[in-house]
Design a protein that fits this description.
Blueprint: H1 2-23, H2 25-28, H3 34-46, H4 53-77
Amino acid sequence: MLRSAVERQLEIIAEALAQLRSVDPELAARVPELRRIVDFRNLLIHGYAIVDDRIVWEIARAKVSALIESLPALGQERPGG
């Protein structure tokens, strides 16, 4: 259940960023590793048979916190942010 929950949350984060790319491409372009995040989401959803749980856990552990730390700065760059 934990693995499924972690994967689902990563999918949601990546889908939100993919939507941001559609709504505000300029802001999305400043999100670190956006393309890799969206690509990873596609792998989770469509390539589940080849997903390595250790890699998923490492991404959740290390990469998500770095992404979260970068997002407030992006909000401050926008008018009204």
